[in-house]
Design brief:
By secondary structure, the protein is mainly alpha-helical. The protein has helices spanning 3-21, 32-55, 60-89, 95-106, 110-116, 134-161, 165-190, 192-195, 199-215, 225-245, 258-270, 277-282, 285-292, 294-312, 319-344, 354-373. Helix 4 (95-106) crosses helix 5.
Length: 374
């Protein structure tokens, strides 16, 4: 556990929340997702590297079981609630399309469905889907499937050839990240709207976090503390500038995504502890709270934004309406965190098959719900 990373999660989710409720206030708040990607890449890659160095392999069964326990119960609860809300308040003519998105979200391929439909995420006048935000969770889940397989193969090859394992990881994952960044820049000029959702244009954002974890650049021994503090403030400023000055007109994620992404890398590298001004901010009680509920808040806030006008008959246009949406989102996220996330996230030793059974059951239930809407 690192308090500064928990604070970074709060920065990311609050940026997205404000962007979705008051897009004119924080027109670039969507880059909070890019910060999430960097954090995930850093944490997951570090976990996998340490496991490989300790045991000479990576237990895919245990790794995927942990991911299922951590992610699937809260996500499934959100999707089931969306299905029920759609049945209660949405037009029946929309149920068929939403059912397909529910299935795509449950299978973590929502981003590819949005690419197929050529959806423009940043278009302010586009008709929103209550599960559209599952595109980023789909990218992460695909990363969780692909990344450990790649690392397992590279690690085995390095061991067999007598190469330094960390250097082999750095080179191979660096090549993948550079290729993804180059493709992202290319797509941003050629077809930016569907390119926003592509896994191939996003994998580098998780990759740069992973490269930092492999390089050991945040392990405490290195540049002086004031140098690290400088990196931390530069990172925070970079994220703030992107949130405040980016807009929906940018072809994203092209080279513009480097600013918030490298800003997040700098923040991770700084390892800002409570003894520094930035560390004190990130470690403060409000930031730690929002970091704690960040996953559930990301899951629940967008359906609440979408259904609020259908339930109340008022658009989220005034400050009061926005605050009502924010308050309900935080309340539901708090409940989700306490009674769903915490209930499932910790498993007992030797129970790695149980999460797969739970996951299969939840997915089948979601498929039945989608079939009911159809």
């Amino acid at each position: 556990f690192r308090a500064d990373i928990q604070g970074m999660r709060a920065v990311a989710v609050l940026a997205v929340l404000v962007y979705h409720i008051w897009p004119g206030v924080l027109p670039g708040g969507y880059v909070g997702v890019d910060v999430f990607f960097v954090i995930s890449g850093y944490l997951i890659t570090g976990l996998l590297v340490r496991e490989f160095e300790r045991s000479g392999t990576i237990s895919l069964r245990e790794f995927y079981a942990r991911r299922i326990r951590r992610l699937l119960p809260a996500a499934s609860a959100t999707l089931l609630a969306v299905a029920a809300a759609a049945w209660a308040w949405s037009s029946a003519s929309e149920w068929g399309d939403l059912a397909k998105e529910l299935v795509a979200s449950a299978l973590y391929v929502e981003n590819w469905l949005l690419v197929q439909r050529s959806v423009d995420y940043l278009a302010q006048d586009a008709a929103p889907s209550p599960v559209q935000h599952f595109w980023s969770l789909s990218v992460e889940e695909q990363f969780y499937i692909f990344w450990p397989l790649l690392m397992l193969g590279v690690g085995a090859l390095a061991r067999g050839r007598g190469w330094p394992v960390r250097k082999a990881f750095l080179v191979s994952l660096g090549v993948v990240s550079l290729a993804s960044l180059g493709y992202g820049v290319y797509v941003s000029f050629v077809d930016p709207a569907p390119g926003y959702f592509l896994t191939t244009t996003r994998i580098w954002e998780l990759g740069v976090g992973g490269l930092l974890a492999i390089a050991g650049g945040a392990e405490g021994n290195g540049p002086a503390r004031w140098v690290r503090a400088g990196f931390g403030w530069l990172g925070m400023v970079a994220i703030a500038v992107a949130c405040g000055f980016y807009s929906s007109r940018l072809p994203f994620p092209g080279y513009e995504a480097l600013l918030p992404t490298l800003g997040a890398v700098a923040l991770l590298y700084s390892r800002s502890g409570p003894g520094t001004a930035l560390g004190t901010l990130l470690s403060s009680r409000p930031m730690q709270y929002f970091g704690d509920i960040s996953y559930s808040l990301y899951l629940w806030h967008w359906p609440i934004v979408v259904f609020y006008p259908l339930v109340t008959g008022r658009e989220v246009a005034t400050f009061q309406d926005g605050m009502a949406v924010a308050a309900v989102s935080v309340l539901v996220a708090h409940v989700s965190k306490q009674f769903i996330e915490e209930r499932f996230r910790h498993g007992r030793q030797g129970e790695s098959l149980r999460p797969y059974a739970i996951g299969a059951g939840l997915t089948a239930l979601l498929a039945l719900s989608a079939g009911g809407l159809i």
